[in-house]
């Protein structure tokens, strides 16, 4: 663990700065932005984008975990990796066991919006007389 010598016989741990953590968190946004752009430009399936984003973030966590020199940052990345993997597994299991219920819930939410669109007046432009 990196330490710096303050005075004779005393050591102080080097802390990870707030700016360092902010930079690390901004790195995790890159796959999300790329997935949003890919979904917009190429009309990619949302499930594929979410899976690719989670996988890219987990790979980034492992790379940062292996390359960092500070123990506190490494421990934070290990905790984030474990939580990400756990939540991913729980999400997949929830979709596998409760997929029909989730789908019907989403359809119930979208039904009022679809009905409101159907209630909009249908207007067609009137033909203008030729001069």
* Helix-strand pattern: EEHHHH
What's the Cα radius of gyration? 25 Å
Please identify the structural class as seen in this structure.
mainly alpha
> How would you describe the shape?
elongated
**What is the strand content?**
5-15%
Structural notes for this entry:
It is elongated, with a radius of gyration of 25 Å. The protein has helices spanning 18-27, 29-42, 46-67, 71-118; strands at 3-7, 10-13. The chain is built from 4 helices and 2 strands, in the order ββαααα. 72% of the residues lie in helices and 7% in strands. The chain has 131 residues and is mainly α.
Task: Explain the layout of strands and helices.
Elements: E1 3-7, E2 10-13, H1 18-27, H2 29-42, H3 46-67, H4 71-118
Comma- or semicolon-separated keywords:
131 residues, single chain, two-stranded antiparallel sheet, mainly alpha, 2 strands
Compose a concise summary of this entry.
The protein is mainly alpha-helical and 131 residues long. Helix content is 72%, strand content 7%.
